[in-house]
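User: Could you check the structure of this?
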Amino acid sequence: MEQAPLFERLGGREGLHALMENIVANHFANPTVCTRYENAKATREELVEGAFEFFCTGLSGVPTYTGLSLVDAHRGMNISDQEFVSVIDDILKAMNSRGVEQLEQAEALKILWDMKPEIVGL
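Assistant: Sure, the predicted structure tokens are below.
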């Protein structure tokens, strides 16, 4: 039997949006990266919506992403490896709090780690 797409296994639009809300809340509470988010030009709600649109599009959940590329969004920020790992930890914490299974977590982490060169050190 064929496995459902990761988008569906994360709860579809509703589940993914709730996950993005948890992730952004974790970022604001994380002392390693909170100032990055507090000083962002976007509001908290805009950060949630942008992340939702990005991941919804990337995980084949339809909405077409209209934001900046990863490189353009992170250029000039000089994000460190430590900050990247800290953000990943926030994402894992959110997935655990929402009951996301290990298989889905591993699949999501693979996607996130593949994005690292487009985020860190730019």
